[in-house]
Amino acid sequence: MEATNKHNWRTKLHEIIYEADTPSGKLFDVFLLILIILSIILVMLESVNSIDEKYHNTLYIGEWIITILFSIEYILRLISVKKPLRYVFSFFGIIDFLSTIPMYLAFFFAGGAQALITLRALRLLRVFRILKLARYLGASNQLKDSIIASRIKILVFLFAVMVSSVVFGTIMYLVEGEANGFTNIPKSVYWCIVTLTTVGFGDIAPQTPLGQFITTIIMVLGYGIIAVPTGIVSAEYAKASNKTHNKSKEVTDKDNPELKIVPLNTQSCSSCLAEKHIDGAEFCYKCGEVLHHE
Amino acid sequence: MEATNKHNWRTKLHEIIYEADTPSGKLFDVFLLILIILSIILVMLESVNSIDEKYHNTLYIGEWIITILFSIEYILRLISVKKPLRYVFSFFGIIDFLSTIPMYLAFFFAGGAQALITLRALRLLRVFRILKLARYLGASNQLKDSIIASRIKILVFLFAVMVSSVVFGTIMYLVEGEANGFTNIPKSVYWCIVTLTTVGFGDIAPQTPLGQFITTIIMVLGYGIIAVPTGIVSAEYAKASNKTHNKSKEVTDKDNPELKIVPLNTQSCSSCLAEKHIDGAEFCYKCGEVLHHE
Amino acid sequence: MEATNKHNWRTKLHEIIYEADTPSGKLFDVFLLILIILSIILVMLESVNSIDEKYHNTLYIGEWIITILFSIEYILRLISVKKPLRYVFSFFGIIDFLSTIPMYLAFFFAGGAQALITLRALRLLRVFRILKLARYLGASNQLKDSIIASRIKILVFLFAVMVSSVVFGTIMYLVEGEANGFTNIPKSVYWCIVTLTTVGFGDIAPQTPLGQFITTIIMVLGYGIIAVPTGIVSAEYAKASNKTHNKSKEVTDKDNPELKIVPLNTQSCSSCLAEKHIDGAEFCYKCGEVLHHE
Amino acid sequence: MEATNKHNWRTKLHEIIYEADTPSGKLFDVFLLILIILSIILVMLESVNSIDEKYHNTLYIGEWIITILFSIEYILRLISVKKPLRYVFSFFGIIDFLSTIPMYLAFFFAGGAQALITLRALRLLRVFRILKLARYLGASNQLKDSIIASRIKILVFLFAVMVSSVVFGTIMYLVEGEANGFTNIPKSVYWCIVTLTTVGFGDIAPQTPLGQFITTIIMVLGYGIIAVPTGIVSAEYAKASNKTHNKSKEVTDKDNPELKIVPLNTQSCSSCLAEKHIDGAEFCYKCGEVLHHE
C-alpha cells in the first residue's frame, strides 16, 4: 500500500518541485532560479527606453516565453499538492500568481499591467530557499541566530533613532524653515534620518549657522551610535559562534544527541506544505501526512 | 490608619497616572502613548501645506481635542501628587505644560504659537519610560551599561574628532577659500565634520587639487576612526554581557542576593516623585514617604 | 654538478628578479616599486590637461624612459625563466606586456593607445608581493585568515543586500517614476545600492512623500545591516587572533612543529614559477625542479 | 644645596608652566586652555564677513589682548627653561611662536598675515597634554595601545584601499571620461576614495550605465571593507582590555610590581623638557638633571 503511493507520478512531481534533496529536485530548482533571474533581467531591460525601442519585439516574445513557463510551473505546483488552496494563498503562491498574470491581463484588457510585472523581483526571495540547501545553511543559521538574539536590543536602538529623528527633525524645521528646503516636518524628519544614517544625499542641506550647528550634533550622534548595533551584533555573533562550537562538542555525551546532529532536509509535506523535516522522518510533524521518499 | 490612606482616590489616581504595575496604570500609559503619537502626527500633517489647506478645520478640531485631553492629564497629574510644584518644575512637567498651552495662547493672543506645538515631539521621550516596563528593560539596561562603561573613552574620542575637525577645517578654509564655498572657518569646520562622519552632503565640495588631496586624508581618517567607537562599544558590550551572565549565576551563592534579583517596579513616590523602588518597598528610599500598594 | 648550476648567471638573474631574499633581490624589488609608482604618477599627470599642455615633451620623454626600462625588465624576466611561456601567460606576465607596449603601438600606428597605458595601475598589485616579505606578512596573513573564514557568511550577506536592492529598486521605480530621476529599473537598483551603502551621492533623490518614506526604510536597513559584516569579521578576527596565539604556544610540544614554525620565503621556482617554498627547501614542491640558493 | 635650588623663582615658574601636578600648575593649564579656545573662536568670528564688518574693532582689540598674553606666555616659557633653544625648536615651541607673531607682522608690514593666525588651531593639540592628567589617562592609554597594536594591520589595509582606489579610479576615468566630470585620473582617484569611504559628495557622479555598474562594485567593496578595520580594532581593544585587567591582578604577586603600579606624573625636565617621569623620581631619566618638587 505504502509502496504504491510512494511511486505515483504526483508524489514524484511534488518531490521535484517542492524539494531539493533528489538530483531532479535540484535540477528543477536551478532551472527555476535561472528562469527567475532571466525574467528579472527582461523586466529591467524593458524599463530602459532606448533598449525597449530597439528590441521591443524580442523582449515581447521573451516575456511570453517566460509567462508560459511560469504558468506551467504554477499549474504543476497546483496539481502536485493535495490541498492546492493552501499553496494558492501562501506567500509564494500569491507572488507566483501575480508575477504570472500581467501578460494575460495586458493581452485581454490592454494597458498598464507593467506594475505587476515588477512583482517578479519578489520571486528572487525564493533564491534563499533554494540556496539554503547547500553548505550555506550553517553560515546563515549562525547569522540568523545572532540577529535573532540581538533583535530586541536592535529594536530598542532603532526606536531611539526614530524618536531622536522626530525630535531633531522638528527642531530643524523650526530653525531652517521652508525657505531652506525643510518644507514640512515629515520631510524634515526624513532629512534627519538621511543625516543620522550618514547617507547625506545633499538635496536638502542646512543653510543657517544654527542649523549647521545642530546638524553637526546630529552627525556626530549618528557617527557615534553606528557603533551600538555593530557592537551588539559582534558580541552576539561571537557568543553564537562559541555556542555552536560548544554544542557540536557536547552533542556526543549529552542528552538528545540525535535531535542536534540530524540535519534538516528540504522535504515539504504534500498536504500542508510544512517544511523542516528531519532526515528519516516518515510522517509530517505538523499534519501527520505520510512523507514520501524516493 | 494605613488602610484608610491606602484606598483613597488620590492614592489610586497617583498609581494609575505615575505608575504602570497595575492593569489600569498600564492602560493609562498605553492610552497616553497613543495620544502623544496622534498629537505628533497631527503637528506633522499641519506642517504640510497641501494637507493643511484641505483639512484645516478637521485638524483644528483634532488639535483642540488633544489640547483638552492633555489639559485634563496635566490637572490630574497636579492633584494626584502631594507636592505639585515638584512636578511642575520637573523635566516632564515643563514639557507637558509647554505642549499643552499653545492652543490657548493662539486662542487668546492670536498668532504664531506654532513653534511651541512642536515641543510635543519631546513628549515622545516619555515613551522610553512607558516601554521600560516590559521585557525591554533587561536589554536596554545592558546596552546602557556598556555605553556608560565606554563613556569616557567615547568622550576622549569625540574630543579628538572635534580637534581634528577644527584643525582640518581651518586648513581647508585657507586652501579652498570663499570662492569654492568655504566662506568662513565655522562653515569650513562644519564641512569637515560632514566629511569625517562620511555623511558628505555635497553642498560644499573641494574644487582645487590640493583641497581634494586634503579631503582624501580627512575621509580616510574618518573611515579609519569609525572603527574606534565601534571597537570600544563591541568590547564593552561583550564584557557587560559576560558580567550579566556571571552575575545571574553568582547571585544564588553570594552576598546581597536579594539586592540583585529583586526587580525594580514602576512605582513613583507621591511626595517627591522618586522612582526605581524595589518590589516590596514600604517607604520611599529618598524622602521616607509611605509607598501605597493596591 | 650542483655547484656549477648554482652560480651561473641565469640562476642569479632569476634570484634577483623573481625573489627577494637576497640583498640584490630586495634592491631590484624596491627599484621596480619606485619605477611603477613613477610610471603611474606620469600617467596621472598626462591625464591632467593643464599639465600635459605645459610639460608635454618632458612627460613624453619620461614615458619613453619608463617604457624602455619596462621592456628591459620584461626581456630579463623572459630569459631568466626556464619556461618563458608560463610567465608570458601568467597574470603579471600579461599585465607587464600590456603596460609596456602602448608607447610602441603609439609610435608605429599613431593614435590612442592611451587606454592601455592606464593598465599600469594594475602593476601596483605587484606591491603586495613585494611588501609581503617584510614583517607585514604576519599581520596580513591573520587578516586574510579572518576574511577567508567569514567568506561564505559575507557572500550570503552580500547576496541578501543584492536581492533587497533589486526588490527595493523596483519598488522605487514604480513609486518615483521617470520624472524624478528613476528613469529605469537598473538605475533605480543602482540608486538603491548607493543608499543602502550610505554613500548617498544625491544626484538622484526621492521627491514624493511615499518615495521618501521607503527611502527611510532602506537607509535604516542599510544602517542596521552594516553591523552584520562588521560583527562577523570582528568575531572571526578575534578567533583567528586567538588561534594564532594558541598555535605559537602549542608548536613546541605538538606534532609537526617544523611545518608551523618554518617561515615561507620569497623563492620562486625557475621552471614553473611556483611560490611559497619553505626555508631550506631543495626542490620545488610542485614540479621537482632544483631550487637554487646563493 | 638642594633646598636653595628647590624654591627659587625659576624652578617654580617651570613647575607652573610646564607641569600640572600642583594646584597653580593646574590653574595655569586651565587658564591657557580657555585662552586657546577663546583665540580660536576669535579667529573663527573674524573669518565670518558679516560679523567682521560689524564688530571689526572689538575683534581687533581682542586679537591684540590674546597676542600679548601669548607673548607673555612665550617669554615665560623661554626664561623658565635652562636650555631655551630646545623649547624654541620643539613642535609646540614653533607653533607657539607662529601663532603669536601674526599680529606683530601685520602691524609692522601690513597685509595678510591672516594665514598664520589660523595656525592657532594647532594649539588645540596642547589640550590633549592638559587633559591627559585627569582620569582620562587610563582610558586613552588603553585606546592608544589597541590602536598601536593594530597599526601595521591598519596600514596594510589602508594600503589596499589606496591601491584599489588607483585601479578603480583609472578604470572610471576611461569609462566615464571628461564629459561626465572625471576630467583626469587624480580627480577620478579622488572620487573613488570619496565613494569607497561612503562619503559620496555627489559633485561628481557616474552617468553611464557601465560607470554606474562599476560604482556599485566600488560601493559594495567599500561597505564590506569598512568591517575590516572595525573588526581589527574591536579584537585588539578587547585584547588590550583583558591584558589591562590581568596586569592589575598580577601586579601584586609578580616581579617589578612598582614599575607597573607607579603612575606617571606631568613633570617635565627643566633642562631637556623630557616628560613621563614616574612619581618620586629625583633625577631626569634622560639627561640626569635634578627634578624639582614643591
UniProtKB/TrEMBL annotation, chains A, B, C, D:
It is found in: Membrane. Residues 26-244 form the Ion transport domain. GO terms for biological process: action potential. Keywords: Ion channel, Ion transport, Membrane, Potassium, Potassium channel, Potassium transport, Transmembrane, Transmembrane helix, Transport, Voltage-gated channel. The keyword Transferase does not apply. InterPro entries: Ion_trans_dom, VG_K_chnl, Volt_channel_dom_sf. The keyword Ion transport applies. Gene3D superfamilies: 1.10.287.70, Voltage-gated potassium channels. Chain C. It comes from the Bacteria. GO terms for cellular component: voltage-gated potassium channel complex. It is a multi-pass membrane protein. The chain crosses the membrane at residues 27-45, 57-76, 88-107, 152-175, 213-238. Its main location: membrane. It holds the Pfam family Ion_trans. One of its GO terms (molecular function) is voltage-gated potassium channel activity. This is Voltage-gated potassium channel.
